[in-house]
Amino acid sequence: MAILFRIRFILIITWIMVTINFHSAGQVSTTLYHMYGIPQANHLNPAFQPECNTFLGLPMLSPLSINVESNPLRYKDIFSYDSQLDAMITFMHQNADKKSFLDRLKPVNNINSNVGTNPLSTGWRNGQFYFTVDLTEKIDQNFRFTEDFMEFALNGNRNRERFNFSETGIDLTYYREFAVGISFNYEDEFQIGARAKVLFGLANLTTRLSDITLKASEDKWEVNSSMVLDVTGPFLYIPIDSAGYVILDSAGIDPSFEEDAFAWLLDNVSTILGTGNPGLALDFGFCFSPVENLSLSASVNDLGFIRWKNDAYHLEQDGSLEWQGIEVKLDDDRDYGEMFLDSVKNQVNFTSVGEPYSTFLAGKVYLGAAYEINEMVKFGLVNKTRIYHAQLFNQLTLSANVRPISMFSATLSYSIIGTNYSNFGLGLALRAGPFSMYFITDQAPGGYLWPETINSFNFRFGLNLVFGCAKIPRKLRDMPLID
Fold first, then answer.
1. Total-model pTM
2. Are 439 and 452 within 8 A, CB to CB?
3. Cα–Cα distance measured from residue 155 to residue 153, given in angstroms and rounded to the nearest whole number
4. CA distance 33 to 27
5. Residues 6+ apart with CB under 8 A from 353
6. Which of 13, 219, 419, 469 could anchor a disulfide with 52, C-beta 3.0 to 4.6 Å?
7. Distance CA 57, CA 123 (A)
8. Bridge partner residues of 174 (DSSP)
9. What is the pLDDT of residues 95-138, one digit of tens each?
10. Strands (E), 6-128
11. Is residue 239 within 8 Å of 246, Cβ to Cβ?
12. Main-chain dihedrals φ then ψ at residue 474, nearest 5 degrees
């Protein structure tokens, strides 16, 4: 029982660490799509042209975006109030309703999170054209796990003997993106734009194949496992023995880096900069007005790939494990958990080859429509579809956008994210002289009023210097400006 507890504990900790470690690690808030006066709206559709002739984002703050999305788990599925303890507990607590938690799961579940920040974001107008340049640091992560994975982690083999862990895996990518965009405006009725991106891969872990089944009877455990992993890391060291198998005990940080980090950095400049793992991507979009006050738009973003060549490892494992337990003796101070892991390592081996591989970005498609009541009020609709592992993840957002004075605008939005219907968003933008600041989220105030119902969290913050903003809506020109 102690060994079973250890294994279940490891599985649960793996799930928690993936969730928490990347909690601050997105997709761009769709509330941004139709907001007034935010230059970085063209990150969602490269056809959009900022109102000001020139903008310059403050490094690391224009923008800073964070997103976490769980499908289908909600906050209240993970955390609940226990009246006996008068405290919040998690689904792992002995008093928690584990059945309710498991009933909420799908056969395969996803936790997606990402973070992006821009050391450089700038743009300028030249006649009918608008040019943008962005340098962005991005981390994208997706953790997939099966219902059986959590069933075994929480209950062991108490309720059944056979489990399917296939499709369980993690994809993690850290990369740098340099993007140059151009948009053409034809008589304020039609805009078309594109953005070309050069990508620099810094670190990656990709689960290519995960086919794992477990039969856990009272007498023995039988595990059949096939896995294919691709991994790249700037300091990663994965040794292999003469038979071509990974020496797990020696895997870790490159010994030469530990011996002389400075010399290692000089010898591996391309690894640190990401130039040794190049990639390309493309965004394109359009916006047009078929009738007065109505605009229709669409864009396709992140069509691209990264080719991982520096410090790239291709790991494969295909085998089976039969475990009949460990004889426990009284007054024995041996580490039985370590003994079990040693038994696993002896029967389940990874082969490794250092060879290049490619990964693809999660593509996104935006379809939008907006109707302007006047130059101060606009209603918008946008549907975002994220494409990942041949699956489609949708978000539909309705927004009401107002700009009562030239220096201030606000947006209220309502979003359907997956199967969650309780997402009320907020966007605020303020311009005082050359300073322009904004904050956007798809979950406020709904996230504060009904936190137990949300299954995602995101926000986007930006601070820009803007110039040449004299072209303001006609109905606002006679209104006083507050600077």
1. 0.81
2. no
3. 6
4. 12
5. 244, 313, 314
6. 469
7. 9
8. 139, 203
9. 888 888 888 888 888 888 888 888 999 999 999 999 999 999 99
10. 54-57, 64-71, 79-82, 87-90, 108-126
11. yes
12. -55, -40
